[in-house]
Amino acid sequence: MPEQRSAPADAILAGVKTTAVTRRVVALAAAGGLRPHVDGSGPRQGRVTIIVNGPGRDAIFGAIYVGAKTGRILHAMLTHGNGGQEMRYDSVADIRAVLQCGNHP
């Protein structure tokens, strides 16, 4: 069954170089209903943008930036709900915490 859990992230990230950690974070966002998808404009400034956008006014939305060459998460810019303050998260642990509980750590 582990293949079923990783399949959504693999489909979302098709054609994008990623690490296992990046795939797990995208899978976590998908499981949380944040509808992650790769920005269709392609890599810019050496990075690929993964857009997240949850349903409803209180959902998390923003972007997770991934190195185009390394496939590693560089940082994320996320906002919790309409009217919320945009926050930068530089560690994967902080990004995971926000995606898991829907709150800023």
Description:
The protein has one domain (2-101). Helices cover 31% and strands 28% of the residues. It has helices spanning 2-12, 20-31, 92-101; strands spanning 37-38, 47-53, 60-67, 73-80, 86-89. It has a 5-stranded antiparallel β-sheet, covered by helices on one side. A hairpin with a 5-residue loop joins β4 and β5 (86-89). α1 (2-12) crosses α2 and α2 runs parallel beside α3. The radius of gyration is 13 Å and the shape is globular. The model is unreliable at 1-6 (pLDDT under 50).
Search tags:
about 100 residues; alpha+beta; five-stranded antiparallel sheet; disordered N terminus
Describe the secondary structure blueprint for this structure.
Elements: H1 2-12, H2 20-31, E1 37-38, E2 47-53, E3 60-67, E4 73-80, E5 86-89, H3 92-101
Antiparallel strand pairs: 1-2, 2-3, 3-4, 4-5
Helix pairs in contact: 1-2, 2-3
**In angstroms, what separates the terminal alpha carbons?**
31 Å
How large is the radius of gyration? 13 Å
Give the neighbour order of strands across the main sheet. Answer: 1-2-3-4-5
Q: Outline the low-pLDDT stretches.
A: 1-6
